[in-house]
Amino acid sequence: MSKxxxxxxxxxxxxxxxxxxxxxxxxxxxxxxxxxxxxxxxKAATGGEIDRVVRLVKLVGFVNSTADxxxxxxxxxxxxxxxxxxxxDAGRHARSAVSAASLPFGVAVEIEAVFEIA
Length: 118
Hints:
This protein has 118 residues and is an alpha+beta fold. It has a domain at 52-118: CATH 3.30.1330.40. It has 3 helices and 5 strands; from the N terminus they run αββαβαββ. It has helices spanning 3-10, 39-45, 72-87, and strands spanning 29-31, 34-36, 53-64, 94-100, 109-117. The chain is globular. The model has no long low-confidence stretch (mean pLDDT 96).
């Protein structure tokens, strides 16, 4: 078991299999040493070698909210806190938290991330 998966297990989290794309796109892209994905896709992109992660570079959170809701950063804090809990200092990242009037499939929050890998 990888170090990251062991930490996830300590937190009571099991990564699902990376879902297949629902349309004409790929689920992850490796560009140089960067992977554009979240943890399950990152594991798939690295051939199961999730410990290749050097750091989480950037996290972006979209919050399905109305025009008068202004606490998007507080909502996305959960994702930021989770990444630091899993990755330690390598999980500290730059971040954006934005509002969206609607998100795909009616989800409340959508997160995207950019990781650096070895």
